[in-house]
Structures are given as structure tokens and as C-alpha cells.
Amino acid sequence: MYKGIWMHPWDFDRDVIAELSKFGFTHISLAVRYIEERQNWPGPNIIFQNFQRRTYTSEENAVYWNVEKNRYLNIPPYLRPVQSQEIQGDVVGEFVRACEENSIRSVLWFPTLRWEKAVRDNPLIGVVDIYGSHPSYKRMFLCPSNPSVKEALSTMVEELSEKYEFDEFEFDFIRYPEIPTTYSTPLLDLALSPCFCKYCRDEAADYGINLEEVRGVLKDIVEWHVQYFLRLQEYCTDLDYCEAMYLDFTKELLENDILKKWLEFRENQISKLLLQLSKIIKRNNPKAEISADLYPPSGSWLLGQNYKKISKIVDRIKIMIYVRPFKRSICRIPYEAMLARKFVKNNVEIVLGLASWPPTTPEDIERQFNMALKLPVNGVSFYSYGWTPKGNLLKIKELFEEVKV
After folding, report:
1. CB 285 within 8 A of CB 278
2. How far apart are CA 355 and CA 143, in angstroms?
3. N or C: which end of the chain has fewer CB within 10 A?
4. Alpha-carbon 277 to chain mean position
5. Residue 103 region, left (φ>0) first, then alpha (ψ -120 to 50), else beta?
6. pTM for this one?
7. CA atoms of 48 and 6, how far apart (whole Å)
8. If pLDDT is split at 50, 70 and 90, which confidence band does 232 have?
């Protein structure tokens, strides 16, 4: 059984790896690069497992390995990896060695397309919507069709896979961004989704799609909302009203061949990039497994993640189902797990990504873990070590001890 946990570099310590081994964890995922994020969000939290850094705002897009700068001379400066100034040393190398010493599988966790500083430094490399605007908060996401983006990511993956004998490489944020909206419908969210940059236009043409035609269809959807929906004085959340919105959304997708083809194209772009990067890893580290962190399958297709396509590339899929912190129903766990297994090849493992930070309690963890044992999945992984109170960690240890597989 896969028994994993995610870890941030500022929480890494060789003694921590030894402790987590005694707790029964089989896999630890260390972020080899990360995003700017206040480490007490979401939730009324501090960093429970770090006596030196109870609070911490991570650097913007820092990496945590010793970068060979000569590799990146042909990469635009805004896409070159910059080594952390605050977390010194080769954290990745120390992590891999510590895992090997403690018989834990080392996982290099690689946030892939979320790269806000690079997009702010050069907006032309980011995804854009039908109006040419960056659709995500803080201009976060790189465009997977951009040649410079693909070259930069490939060079980083190549360096990591040549330098380190890790056991698993985990791709995170291998998708398009969510659309932050308040007064919206599923159709409006879709209509404002990326990407319509010049590189996407060229690749879409090769795929048999005219993105200008798609843009016209989506603009009509937006204008309909402006004229009829967004003029309402009151925003409805009644169940009957929400049902009507989703029925209309379903009908539109069933009947609109242009939108269906566009959604397929976006899934193709994400899968192509994942395949390109995975081939580099397999070439340099043939024993390493490949995994991808995915949105739950009920909605992953809206972000360009196709479980069937991705399962042909990776060894393991991790479904991010954080329940209590995001006020989601626990019923999502079995629903999304069964849905994923329907799409995923039988030889590809499925791991449930579960929250272990407050307001999640030990009782919540036990209930979710026991639920996972009854599902067609291969294990669980908890997010994240630093955010997890001691009581929750002890509950995980207890549950792991009860499962000897």
C-alpha cells in the first residue's frame, strides 16, 4: 500500500525522514521548486512541525537543488531556475540520500506550469483568455504550447533526472488554471478559460481547429451572460436553479461540436507536455516511476486533464480530494475514486491525496482512511507534513500500523 506525505523544503531535516519512516510512511514527496505561498493558509494554521519556522512565506518560484547555470544559457532569463536564497544547500540531494538511508521511496514533487513570477516578467509566456487577459489569480500559469516554456521545463527535468537517483517524479500543476469567479455559471467559467495565445492558435490549426471560431462561440456565451444573467440583482444558489444551470451546461456540451473539439485539443496539449517530460526522466532514470497530481475526474477535463490519456503515460495518478478544509462532502472520496478507476488503466496505480491539516481532525482522518481501504485504490498520501498537527500524525501512524500491506 502506498503511504505517502508531501513535504516542503523548509520543513526538511534528515531526522524528520527517519521519524516518518518509523511512522510507517513508504513515500515522501519533496517540492523541488515551489510557489509563493503563506504557510498558514488555508485554515487558521501555523507550521506545526517546524520549531524554527512556525510561520513562513515561501519564496517566489525558488528551486531547491544546486542549479548548473551553464545548462540554461539558451533559456530566456525569466524562465531560468533560481536557487533559493533562504533555504541553503542542495536540499534535493540531501533528501534523496536521507530517504535511501531510511528505506523510504524518494519522490521529487515538481509544480510544473504554475510559475507566476515568470509570467509577470514576460506576460507573453502565460495562458490568456478570449480577451487576451490572464485568467488566473496573480497571472500564475505558463502556456503549455509555448516553445520556450517546453524547453525550460525539459532542461530542468533533464538536470534533475541526470543528477539524482530518485524513486518517483511527481508532476503537479500539469494543467490549465481554475477561473476565479464569484457570480458565474459553468458555461461562463468555461467561456473564460484559456488559452488563446499565438502558439495555441498555431498548434490548434495543426489539430484541425480554428481558435478564432472557438473564440467567437465563447464570446457569444459571455455576452449572453452579460445581457441576461449578470443583470440579476440577486445571486441565486437555490438547488433548483443550480440544477437548471448544469442541465443547460450539459446540453451545450452535447450539442456544440466546436467546444468539444477545443476541449480535446487542450487535453492533448497537457498530455503532450507530460509525455515529453516523462520521456526525459525514463531515459535518464529508467527505474523511476512517473506520477501526476490531478483534479478529481468529475471536473479535471475542464482544466485539460484527461485521465484516460494521462494513464497511458504515468505509473501512478494522485487524486487531490481535500475535504474538510475546502468544505467538500466526504462522499466525494468514493465517488471520485470509482470514477477514476473507470477511466484509468488497471496497471496504473491510484492514490488518494487527502488533507491532514486543520480543521481536519484525527476522527476525520480515520474515517477517510477506512473509506479508502474499501475503494479500488492503491494507497493514500497526506498534505502536508509541516501543516499536520502531532495528533493527526499519530492517528496516521496508528492507522498505518493496522494495515500491514
Report:
1. no
2. 29
3. C
4. 15
5. left
6. 0.96
7. 14
8. low
Q: Report pLDDT for 351.
A: 98
Of the pLDDT bands very low, low, confident and very high (cuts 50, 70, 90), residue 42 is low
Residue type, 63: V
Mean pLDDT of the chain: 95
- Quick one: pLDDT at residue 178? 93
The neighbouring-strand residues paired with 142 are 126
Domains of the chain as residue ranges with CATH: 2-178+265-402 (3.20.20.80)
Backbone angles phi, psi at 242, to 5 degrees: -60, -40
| CB-CB contact of 78 with 122 (8 Å) | yes
> Would you state the cell numbers that stand for residue 120, as one nine-digit string?
509577470
Q: Output Rg (C-alpha) for the chain, integer angstroms.
A: 21
Cα–Cα dist 62/50, whole Å: 20
**Residue 148 CB contacts under 8 Å (≥ 6 apart), including other chains:** 75, 76, 79, 125
**pLDDT higher than threshold 90 for residue 382:** yes
Q: Scan for cell 510557489, then name that residue.
A: 35
Cis? peptide before 384, omega within 30° of 0: yes
Exposure class string for 147-169: b at 16+ Cβ within 10 A, else e: ebbbebbbbbbbbbbebbebbbb
Residues in the chain: 405
For 104, 288, 399, the CA distances from 402, given in Å and listed in that order, are 19, 29, 5
The helix/strand/coil state of 347 is coil
Is the confidence at residue 183, as pLDDT, over 80? Answer: no
Nearest CA to 369 out of 394, 400, 346 is that of: 400
Q: What is the DSSP string of 13-79?
A: -HHHHHHHHHTT--EEEEESB----BTTTTTT---TT-SS-SS-B--SSEE-S---GGGGTTS-GGG
Residue 152 cell numbers, joined: 525550460
For the cut 70, the answer to whether the pLDDT of residue 405 exceeds it is: no
